[in-house]
Structures are given as structure tokens and as C-alpha cells.
Amino acid sequence: MATATPLQVHNVVTEFLATPRKLLIDGKWVQAHSGKTFNSIDPATGEVLARVAEGDKADIDLAVKAARRAFESGPWAKMSASERGRIIWKIGDLLQENLEEFAELETLDNGKPLSVARVADVPLAADLFHYMAGWATKIEGSTIPIAGPFLAYTRREPIGVVGQIIPWNFPLLMAAWKLGPALATGCTVVLKPAEQTPLSALRLGELALEAGLPPGVLNIVTGFGETAGAALAAHPDVDKIAFTGSTEVGKLIVQAAAGNLKKVTLELGGKSPNIVFDDADLKQATAGAANAIFFNHGQCCCAGSRLFVEDKIFDKVVEGVSESAKKIKVGPGMNADTTMGPLVSEEQFNRVRGYMEAGLNEGAKAVVGGKTVGNRGYFVEPTVLVNTKPTMKVVREEIFGPVVTAMPFKSIDEIAAEANNTSYGLAAGIWTKDIAKAHSLANKLKAGTVWINCYNVFDAAMPFGGYKQSGWGREMGKEALELYTETKAVCVRIN
Ligand code: NAP
Ligand code: MG
After folding, report:
1. Are strands 273-276 and 427-431 parallel, antiparallel or unpaired?
2. pLDDT for res 4
3. Confidence band for 35, pLDDT divided at 50, 70 and 90
4. Is residue 148 classed exposed, middle or buried when 0-12, 13-18 and 19+ CB atoms within 10 A define those classes?
5. Which ligand gives the minimal distance to the CA of 106?
6. Closest residue to atom 43 of ligand 1, CA basis
7. Which ligand lies nearest the alpha carbon of 195?
8. Which domains does the chain have, with CATH numbers?
9. Does the CB atom of residue 185 touch ligand 1 within 6 A?
């Protein structure tokens, strides 16, 4: 357990937490229509961190109306792409200027180490806005030579009012991934943050107004998935829904969206294979395999949760990953020496604990970990399981915690099929010095991202998303922009 004294929380953060947080609708901060609130919990202690308005269907209705007005007739609709880009850029600048405040909010609400929020969540979110700001002026159609006396061209128009539902694992960054392309293309948004981690998105809403985003362009309705989220997904005046979260809820979103056939993009779960060959740089591969599963406490949709190791080096790699696990300092995210914080919630804690127990009961062996830590907050040990079988729950299902199953394999011929033996297809890792082998296997893996001799590398310019039941569409990069626009073909008789 980490032991250092907690770092001091800055006054701006303490004040932000002390004030009950409201919904952002039409540029104003308002109470929920019902007057209800709910608590956001600090997962390091299980205690109440802040009170937040509990929006539901009525608030979603108001937010969608505001977003529709802003899309059809507000200043946003008339604004030049260049001006739009400048506002988005400014949001990125303001995030950088307030980096420390956002990192603290993220740590307190989500549990992740402050040192991680400072170098990953907040800077990546700022970078996403800067990257997308540049695209605002570069969204172009094309001219198309067609038969006959016609001029044909396409326009890329914003899709309209977008509902965005995001999870709790990277609260600010997921908001950025969603908002960046929506704003760059000129859409308007109703954002529903996760009930466990609503705070950084609400603070981001304040920055967006400060950056000059007109009223109604970004509306934020905090609340629960079954009420606010479901109302947004089903809303007849929403043109697109973008969702990140569990595959189970993803399927509900698709059903809800069928009413008005709104467009849907989904970024769902994963059970990503991480494959180490015996000709890999073992030091790099071992550290990479540990990072692939333990980063963000395994609460990553792309976590390298199935570690496949060529049999000759299996024991060595398992030992290396286990040694890394032993060095991890589990503790509150606000402690200076913490390298792994608590899981996000009691529910998630029980879920991960349940998986650990199921794995051990089914005959898996924990080389390291397998237990919970302390009796306050939601801490678990980083865990490496061996002696697993492909049929076990821990091998098949997404755990979303710091639990990796390590399995030996014999040859490149069998590994692609084994790696692909999952209903998911979000990411994969390959570790080898043989570049031909790496590329050949990369081609065979059914995954939206393949990392070779690295893992968890993200960039605003690189598309991210899933094959199979890991999702529909892509986030980031120019692929994301396409999914926020409609293509209009215009055909003109010219003689
Ligand atoms: P989840 O239920 O899928 O939550 C994701 C978002 O969807 C939240 O904002 C949630 O609201 C909302 N939501 C829930 N039910 C909804 C509905 N019927 N209609 C519309 N929106 C709805 O995920 P979770 O329960 O927090 O986590 C469960 C598991 O999902 C995890 O253990 C993990 O396996 C997976 N997960 C994956 C990702 C990812 O990045 N792919 C992220 C988080 C979780 P509430 O906040 O009120 O629930
Ligand atoms: Mg919280």
C-alpha cells in the first residue's frame, strides 16, 4: 500500500466540489427539472465527493431543444469554420492552463493516480481539441466527373444534434474524444457523463463557455443511464448517438436508436490479446505486457488482458510481469507514491473481485495478487493468473480490472486463431524483433488497433475503435470526422 502523505488539493478544486453542480442547458447552469441530486463518490474512501444534479428525460428534452435551436439558427450555424476552429483550440488552451485542477478533479472522482492524470488524461484531452480545431477548416467535399451535361459535387455537412454518452474510465478524455469531432464539424451536442465521474465534464463545460462556445452548442446532462442516457438514445430529435461503455448497454443503445434510425457509433468492450514471441526484446515486452494490463488499473477497453507468450519464454515473461505487479504501489490517487489507485466504484470492485474468485475457483493460479487491499475504498491487487483454460470466465469475459490471464502458445500458425477467438476486436499487441512476422500477424488479427513492440499508444490523429462486438465506427483521426458528417451530392445541369 502507498504510504506517502496525500498531496494538498488546491482551493479551486475544493470550492468546485463544495458547490452542488448543475446541468448545462442552453448556456446556463440549471437545477434538474425534478430538483433531484445524486452523489459522486471518492473511490479512495467511499465518501461523498460532490453533489450533482440528477437530470432525466425532462432535462434531456430541454437540452435537445437547445441543441436543435443552436444547430438550426444560433450563431454557431452562421459561424465561419475558422472561428469555430479558434474556439475549439481555445478549449484545448484552457485545459492546459488548468491542467493541475483537472488532474486533481479526475483523481478524486475516478481514483487514478494524480501523476497519471497529469501526464495522460489532461494533456491528451487538450491535444485532442487542438488536433480537431485544425480540422474545422478542412472539411471538404469533392467534384465528381459524371456522365452528361452536369456538374456534380459533394458537400460534407454536420450531422446535426448529437447525443454523447460516455464512461467513467477516462472521464475527461472520453468527453474530449467525443466533443472534438462533433464541434469541428459544426454539430451541437447533449453530453451525458457517467454517474460515477461527472465532475471533469462539468468543469469542461465551464471552459467551453469561457472559450466562446455559443449557448446550446454543448449541453451537459448528468444523471443515470437508465433514465437520462436512455432518454437521449431514444430521443426522436437526436440525429446521432455516440456511445462508449459496455457491449451490453451498446446493444440497448442500438435498440433505442431504431425509433428514428438515428446514426450510431459505439466504442465497446474488449478482451485484447497481447502476444509475446521468444525473439522479442524481453525487457521491453515484459514491461509492455505489465503496462498493457495495469495502466488505469485495467479499466481500459483496450487492456491487454489475454497475455499469450511463446512457450519457451513463458515462465520468464510471467515472472517479469509478476515482478512488475509486486512493485506497484496501490493507494489513494492523491498520494505521491501511488502507482495504482482504487477501482472506480463499489460495483466495479465487487465485479472484479468476483472475477478473481471465479478464476481461482475454476482452477486458475494467481502468481501474484488475487485479493482485495485494505478495508476502506475500492482497492484490489494487480493480479497475474496462470493455469487458465480458454473456457474460463476470466479468459472469455471483460474483467475491466488489473487482472491478466497468461497463456503459453507454440507457434505463429496457431496464435492468430487463438487471439481472434473472442467476440471482441478492439486492440492487440505483438512483441517480436522479426518485422515480417509482426506485419504478417498484424494483418491476421481482427482488431481495430494493433500495437507492435508498444502498447497503449494513443494519438489524436490515430483512429481507434473496434471490430466485431467492440463497436461501430472510429474515434479520433479523420475517420471520426466522417462519422459526424452527412455527404450531400449536388447535381447541376450546366447546358
Ligand atoms: P455502462 O453501463 O455501459 O456505462 C456507460 C455509460 O452508459 C454511462 O454513462 C451509463 O450511465 C450509460 N448507460 C447505462 N445504461 C444506459 C442505457 N440503458 N441507456 C443509455 N445509456 C446508458 O458501463 P458500466 O456499468 O459503468 O461498466 C460496466 C462494464 O462496462 C465495465 O465493467 C466494463 O466491462 C465496461 N466498460 C467499458 C468501457 C469502455 O471504454 N469500452 C467503459 C466503461 C465500462 P451510468 O453512468 O448511469 O451507468
Ligand atoms: Mg466519483
Report:
1. parallel
2. 66
3. very high
4. exposed
5. 2
6. 245
7. 1
8. 11-268+471-489 (3.40.605.10), 273-459 (3.40.309.10)
9. no
- The stretch 361-379 carries a mean pLDDT of 97
Evaluate: CB of 301 within 6 angstroms of ligand 1: yes
Distances (CA, A) of 172 to 99, 203, 204: 11, 9, 8
| Ligand 1 center to 246 CA (angstroms) | 5
Strand pairing class (218-220; 150-158): unpaired
Cα(152) to ligand 1 centroid in Å equals: 43
Query: pLDDT tier at 8 (50, 70, 90 boundaries)?
Result: confident
Q: Is the Cβ atom of 229 under 6 angstroms away from ligand 1?
A: yes
In the structure grid, which three cell numbers stand for residue 235, read together?
A: 430521443
174-226 tens-digit pLDDT: 999 999 999 999 999 999 999 999 999 999 999 999 999 999 999 999 999 99
pLDDT in tens, 426-475: 999 999 999 999 999 999 999 999 999 999 999 999 999 999 999 999 99
Q: For cell 475516478, what's the residue?
A: 110
pLDDT at site 206: 98
Beta 143-144 vs 273-276: how paired, if at all? unpaired
Per-residue confidence (pLDDT) for residue 371, from 0 to 100? 97
User: Active-site positions?
Assistant: 267, 301
Ligand 1 atom at shortest distance from the alpha carbon of 167: 5
Does the C-beta of 343 come closer than 6 Å to ligand 1?
no
- Can you read off the three cell numbers belonging to residue 124? 491528451
CA–centroid distance, 110 to ligand 2, in Å, is: 5
Residues 6+ apart with CB under 8 A from 234: 256, 257, 259
Residue 150 in contact with ligand 1 by CB distance below 6 A = no
pLDDT at 2: 60
Cell of 325: 505487479
